[in-house]
Design goal:
about 40% helix, homodimer, Uridine Diphospho-n-acetylenolpyruvylglucosamine Reductase, domain 2, eight-stranded antiparallel sheet, Uridine Diphospho-n-acetylenolpyruvylglucosamine Reductase, domain 3, about 475 residues, five-stranded antiparallel sheet, alpha+beta
């Protein structure tokens, strides 16, 4: 409880004048549900509110700004760095009520959505129109479009298509002062003044609340070809990525799953994956002729670098199984470790992948932490996964020490401390090491432009 | 002359202590060369300086900031909205001396360049490595990468690949205070704090001087297929774009050239293009099989909507001629109108293209201005071209009135006043109509964060 009881009672009353009273959640049990996301952190909000219109959000934000109460916007709470944790209490704004798909326009190649739309729901709806939105975070089953935008989510297809920031054309945003602005445009191209759209994409809810988004969409490719390859050493799998690029091919996805994940997936889902050090999954999309041709070339490269069991998925079930394997990597590992997990996120230049894998294993071993690795390897994006029981501070402490040491190592390799999970709380102390003091000062000053009273998701990104 | 003579002499002396004295240009003739870009505007700088290192730029900027002297960074001066015009005099910083390609890395799919590299030079160098950088502004022959980034240049291939902002991974920037920051990363994915990279992309030199850029590059596609189609009415050509998308195909480029351009090109280059209301040029890239297959589908659509003379370029010469036609549209029209041109830039949702063409013709007729149209039609991006003799204020005035009326009309169609040419001076008075007061206030406040003394390219974007 961060707010004084008397003030809180007043605020709750006022919130109930803005939204219907059933959308103001105050009980311990209800608030507890909003005290965690998928990160290591925990903090209780004083009150949770579920708006359904931009106008309601304007009123909520004006109230909070006047009373200087922290606001934490929240989508599905799948954040892995603490972005949805109300570290200073106050109001959590649950955006899942604003979940309408407002327009899908195949002629203009755009979709207009509210932020609470679940990623997969949009994907399904777009597919009915023969379209897709390229970003595909692993949490697609539950995460919201607003959350994906706020975090600049990536995913597997980022290799071919880029991340969320490349697929958002415009936004409507309620600023921390209660003003509503629109950014970008409903058009495929636009450069009118500063790129506020992409300033909001990846700003982790610290600059305002997104209430509408114009997305750039694409026709679904005619064909998708999926293949897998096994490697005796994960470093060699990393090397294979470079070799594929050097041949002039950039597949849609190149994923790597480490032996710990493979075993966990086999144990749970009985998929019979080869239990070697690393499994690679590659997708190629395009016309039927194109994917066939590229697949042949990729197979040759994989063979040349020493991959074994190179297989194309030839049936729908084989396709689905490989996809499932990749998607189930987290829950399977969770099950195998018999503990909750922390999923880290780094990016290195692609030619540093083998070194990054080696480093992650060395440092995990040093800290006596079992580790599994999933990598969006095509992007040089690796996710070390460590088990951690968040009830025990000493376990959290050990994971954080390992995480910090690996972060230093990744930066030394010329990498970045965050590819697609953001900074949140987890990486706030590291961002200055990547960018230096001045860049962070600039970010802080920009934060103050939007949010003079520091009410919007305070305590994140070292702001 | 904006600066007092005595102060100017001191500044020139100090600049000569920073760069070699031959890189400080002070004569009227030399400065005159820097008083124009490709827009309607004109203003003389007090002095021009040509730095060759980041350190020199730091010193220049510190001097200017201390003395509160305006700085206008300049690439090749191809800007069409006045971005490179030193409207308040002061120092023009000519960036063309910093023109080294620092790294091309086929394994990591990146290139690192200095900002003065000419766009086409980079293209040629990348091609030697089997790579390309997708943005392709029409000024590729002369424009610099730094200028393309500062303006968020687009071009023809933006339809398939997006604009400059989608292909810049990181920057080194000298801020107006003389501090040097780096943004983004050397990696393909990155989300660490606010997206300062894309805040600089398209900021038109108002936030700092870009001194290095990390670009995301791609392997050159195996095949490129080019085709053309003629239309009796430009509105029907606009409609054809929608039809192509609805069939699930997004070509690499879809260009439209109006009859006025076609005639001008034929007259000059004797290409024998069909002299109908509009000519469409379409590129498809990918594997040989893919482009063949898509070309067949596109031809069918074009026929269905009533295009005539649908032709594939089958020889290298035919390919080159069509490309030349598109590239030569400006100079040919220039030659035909026997006057300098102003090239405007709007974007509309693709299904509004026919209306936008009609509107542009109506309004030009009303103002008795001959007009040619070039359109990156796939993006809904149209460029009306009007002749204007910039020596006569009444001619400029008439063009500006026509431009303003068309801008209002484009906004009413749900379009945007700038797709790829920026705001500069030309569109500064219109930006508030597109975004409202608050968004512009936010941009101004961001400008102050970076540039408290308003020295960096002042008088642009209504800041």
């Amino acid at each position: 409880m961060f707010m004084k009881q008397r003030k809180l009672v007043q605020i709750i009353e006022k919130l109930k004048n803005i939204v219907r009273s059933e959308h103001v959640l105050t009980s311990y049990e209800e608030r507890y549900c909003y005290s965690r996301d998928a990160s290591l952190y925990w903090a209780m909000p004083d009150v949770v509110v579920r708006p359904h219109t931009t106008e309601e959000i304007v009123e909520i934000v004006k109230l909070a700004n006047k009373e200087k109460i922290p606001i934490t916007p929240r989508g599905a709470g799948t954040n892995l760095t603490g972005g949805a944790i109300p570290v200073k209490g106050g109001i959590v704004v649950d955006m899942t009520g604003m979940n309408r798909i407002l327009e899908i326009n195949r002629t203009n190649l755009i979709a207009v959505v509210e932020p609470g739309v679940v990623h997969e729901d949009l994907e399904k709806e777009l597919a009915k129109h023969g379209l897709f939105w390229p970003p595909d975070p692993a949490s697609t089953y539950s995460c919201t479009i607003g959350g994906a935008i706020a975090e600049c989510a990536g995913g597997m297809r980022a290799l071919k298509y880029g991340t969320t920031r490349d697929w958002v054309l415009g936004l409507e945003v309620v600023l921390p002062t209660g003003d509503v602005i629109k950014t970008g445009a409903m058009t495929l191209k636009n450069v009118t003044g500063f790129d506020l759209t992409r300033l909001f994409v990846g700003s982790e809810g610290t600059l305002g609340i997104i209430t509408k988004a114009v997305l750039k969409v694409r026709p679904l490719p005619e064909a998708l070809l999926r293949m897998s390859a096994a490697f005796y050493e994960i470093e060699i799998a990393g090397l294979a990525v470079s070799k594929i690029f050097e041949t002039g091919i950039v597949p849609t996805i190149i994923e790597i799953i480490s032996i710990e994940c493979i075993r966990a997936i086999n144990e749970w889902l009985k998929l019979g994956l080869p239990e070697v050090d690393a499994l690679m999954v590659i997708d190629l999309d395009g016309t039927r002729e194109e994917v066939e041709k590229l697949a042949g070339k990729v197979e040759k490269i994989l063979k040349d670098v020493g991959a074994i069991e190179i297989k194309r998925a030839t049936t729908a079930k084989e396709m689905e199984d490989l996809y499932l394997a990749r998607r189930a990597a987290y829950p399977s590992t969770f099950r195998a470790f018999r503990k909750s997990l922390t999923v880290d996120d780094f990016c290195v230049p692609v030619n540093k992948l083998p070194e990054a894998f080696r480093l992650a294993r060395e440092i995990s071993k040093k800290w006596r932490l079992p580790m599994a690795i999933i990598a969006h390897a095509g992007d040089g994006n690796i996710h070390p996964i460590w088990p951690v029981d968040v009830r025990y501070p000493e376990e959290i402490d050990r994971v954080l020490k390992c995480h910090t040491e690996l972060s230093h190592g990744i930066l030394k390799l010329g990498g970045s401390i965050s590819a697609e999970h953001g900074i949140g709380i987890l990486k706030a102390s590291l961002i200055e090491e990547e960018y230096g003091k001045k860049a962070i000062e600039v970010m802080r000053a920009i934060k103050r432009v939007f949010d003079p009273n520091d009410i919007m998701n305070p305590g994140k990104i070292a702001l």
